[in-house]
Amino acid sequence: MFRWAKGYAYTGKRLFEKTVTIQYPQQKPKIPEGWRGRHYFYPDRCTACDACARVCPTEVITVVSHRDPETKKKILDDYTIEFERCILCGYCEEACPVDAIKMGDVYELASYAREQEFMTQEKMLPPGYSTDVVVHGQGEAYRGGDYRTKPEKKVNH
Fold it and tell me: Where are the beta strands (DSSP E) in 14-114?
């Protein structure tokens, strides 16, 4: 019988509290630590081991590589993700032994064309990452040292 009074009391208590609504898209929300958004790919770190593609539950990652006839090491030729089917599980990030793929903080993932959902390695570079570093087969140069640092100069093969 007094349910309406309880409803008004609850509304009255909350009326003068601080609002939690933000004016999106003018104001952007704070992204929590560990957010799994759009992928960032570091091609100079990638060793073309194919671990990310094997562990992907939706099979959207394609790694194309070849072996160098002299050194017998794999060299990355192409890395793509069909983002329209990606479920952002983060398994690729966990499986990568050299941190070549990271989950970013980009959450606005909608697009008007399916072609925009096909992510090549050039589209997945992190912000501020130089495209001069994108040279096929750079992953083996970082196995012995710190693979998280960018190379000082461009290496030509």
Answer: 39-41, 61-67, 74-82, 101-103
Q: Which CATH number fits domain 34-142: 3.30.70.3270, 2.40.160.10, 3.30.30.10, 1.10.10.60?
A: 3.30.70.3270
| pLDDT surpasses 80 at 144 | no
Structure tokens of 125? 């570079």
- Of residues 98, 48, 115, the one with CA closest to residue 78: 48
pLDDT digits (tens, 9 = 90+) for 48-103: 999 999 999 999 999 999 999 999 899 999 999 999 999 999 999 999 999 999 99
Instruction: Read off the tokens for 40.
Output: 């960032």
* Residue 93, SS3 per DSSP: helix
- What is the identity of the amino acid at 81? I
Residue type, 106: V
Torsion of CA 87, 91, 97, 101, to 10 degrees: 20
